[in-house]
Amino acid sequence: MHTDNPTAAILVIGDEILSGRTRDSNAHHLAQVLSATGFDLREIRVVADDQEQIVAAVRALDDSLGGAWNLLFTSGGIGPTHDDITADAVAAAHDTTAQIHPQARAALQARCDRMGTELTPNRLRMARVPVGATLIENPVSAAPGFSIGNTHVMAGVPEVFRGMVDWLIPRLAAGRPVRSQTVEVRRGESDVAGDLRAVAALFPDLSLGSYPYHDERGWGTNLVVRGLDEARIEQAMDQLKRRLEL
Amino acid sequence: MHTDNPTAAILVIGDEILSGRTRDSNAHHLAQVLSATGFDLREIRVVADDQEQIVAAVRALDDSLGGAWNLLFTSGGIGPTHDDITADAVAAAHDTTAQIHPQARAALQARCDRMGTELTPNRLRMARVPVGATLIENPVSAAPGFSIGNTHVMAGVPEVFRGMVDWLIPRLAAGRPVRSQTVEVRRGESDVAGDLRAVAALFPDLSLGSYPYHDERGWGTNLVVRGLDEARIEQAMDQLKRRLEL
User: Fold this and answer.
1) Looking at beta carbons, which residues of chain B come within 8 Å of A191?
2) Which residue of A has its CA nearest to B220?
3) B234 and B228 in contact (C-beta within 8 Å)?
4) What is the CATH topology of the domain spanning B7-171?
5) CATH domain B179-243 topology
6) From which residue to which does any coiled coil extend (chains A, B) (predicted)?
7) Interchain proximity B79–A19, CB inside 8 Å
8) Which of residues 53-112 of B touch A (CB under 8 A)?
9) Where does CATH 3.30.70.600 sit in chain B?
10) Is A33 on the interface with B (CB under 8 A)?
């Protein structure tokens, strides 16, 4: 399926995903939001809290740096601890450095005042963003994300990540949302492959996928038709159902 | 943290992950297995069912092709349908082509005989592997995975993927398992960052991570010490707890 939608990548930064300690939920959440709002997610990467790996990935994925995709969203590594190196690494990828952003500092100060706590050097670390970056609002806990070039940097804590996504996505120029319809058959994939291929050939503007599963009753397959045009999806689904006698 | 363990990457192949339809579970499962058995997972990528993207990723990740890591595990795209192109793409990455493997054909034929079904051309597609590949056994449904160079290709259906992982991993030369201990504090990350950094500096052979979360009671943080040596982990955890008065 070809769309003219802006292309996108997600870069998840965090040892805890690679060690198996944490199962990522941010990439999955953002993938759903991007489909529904008209962006074409083409790649996800997960890398360690490692400067060299982050810099290489940002450059490979952000087209403003010669990378592959129109937009890059990152998750993780913007907290106050020694292993939170995303701001410095993203700055380096964009050939600049990180420094305290006055607006971020003010947001953190206001929150500290409200909570009756002090803006310690550790907390202040979270106001550091690359020179030239603009801020992404954090509706949960003040410490902001930021955008530089086509890279949009967000927090790893799922609740904060989602808040930043909600704030950011409506501010980006989207394409057309992708629609889909699904039909489930209690047959293995091999038994539907021929009909699926035949219908796919008739609808090159759509994407036809088959997702087999296995449960206590044996094999089943979800057949999914995706595309931009609801009427075309309907036509393809009708043909598929007729061929499969559903 | 530095280990001499073999390094590894996971490549997940599938439009359904990028569209947000499916939340990947295979990479998370394999990440846990790799940590526990002595492999150092350094990168995860998710790409579309797209020949060019798969070829580029395999070449970037498998060190037998000049890529970055010692071992590459893939998930998805080896079924019978038109969008199952992993065998051909991995073959192309390794400068060869896919063809019917006699042993894979025999396994599929035996299963068809048992089930009283026919080995149709669609089913037979699943016996195609790159020339020179060896097979990975499929304990669920006969259609095998395969290994070529340092690339190990497995199915996307979670039950089948897990069966293949169980078969494959004990056959690979592992390093030392990574151990970890966790302590939970009901404080924000900023309040523990200083002590965490101090202890991390004393134990360069270990990895100290902090994973904040937010729930109805406010902020909390899990502090995780990881390493190869249980006694060192114990020492670092003791110092951390003393400093944090836990």
Assistant:
1) 122
2) A157
3) no
4) Molybdenum Cofactor Biosythetic Enzyme; Chain A (3.40.980)
5) Alpha-Beta Plaits (3.30.70)
6) none
7) no
8) 53, 79-83
9) 179-243
10) yes
Q: For A133-165, what is each residue's pLDDT tens digit? A: 999 999 888 899 999 999 999 999 999 999 999
**Axis crossing angle, helix A86-93 with helix A51-61, rounded to the nearest 10:** 50
**Residue whose C-alpha is closest to residue B225's, from A146, A190, A16, A47:** A16
| Nearest Cβ partner for B31 among A18, A41, A224 | A18
Contacts for A147 with CB less than 8 Å, ≥ 6 apart: A133, A134, A135, A136, A153, A168
Nearest to A10 by CA among A196, A199, A212, A153: A153
* A237 neighbors A225 (Cβ within 8 angstroms): yes
- Two structure tokens written together for B202: 């004393």
Give me the mean pLDDT over the A209-219 stretch.
Answer: 88
Q: Which ipTM was obtained for this model? A: 0.94
What are the tens digits of pLDDT across the range B208-240? 999 988 888 888 999 999 999 999 999 999 999
Query: What ranges in chain A are assigned the alpha helix state H?
Result: 15-18, 26-37, 51-61, 86-93, 102-115, 121-124, 158-168, 193-202, 230-243
Q: Is A245 helix (H, G, I), strand (E, B) or coil?
A: coil
Note the pLDDT tens digit of each residue in B34-89: 999 999 999 999 999 999 999 999 999 999 999 999 999 999 999 999 889 999 99
